[in-house]
Specification:
Layout lengths: L1 H23 L8 H30 L7 H25 L6
């Protein structure tokens, strides 16, 4: 569980920086803070689901045994999303405003 939480934090950091950097070099437009946070959380959530799809494929084609059951999968995704939310809260509280 701690690894899934940490994974959520790392994914969140990457997505947060990638979206801000893309806006800074005019690949995308800057958004208001609420839109940035909603998009950010949606992308973190999608990344956790896609990770589970990758585990499913690894189990199916290579018999890795990565998935232990539905309860474990849901708790892993939940912890990844919680990690993303904690990063978001920490970023809001401890750093500069969202738009640089």
């Amino acid at each position: 569980m701690p690894m899934h939480f940490a994974g959520g934090v790392v994914i969140a950091f990457f997505i947060h920086r990638a979206t801000l950097n893309a806006a800074n070099v005019a690949l995308v437009q800057h958004t208001d803070t609420l839109t940035h946070y909603v998009l950010f959380f949606a992308l973190v959530s999608m990344a956790t689901v896609m990770w589970k799809f990758a585990e499913f494929l690894a189990d199916t084609f290579f018999a890795t045994g990565a998935q232990k059951g539905v309860r474990e999968n849901i708790s892993d995704m939940f912890m990844g999303m919680v990690g993303g939310l904690i990063f978001l809260i920490a970023q809001k509280v401890f750093s500069r405003p969202c738009h640089e």
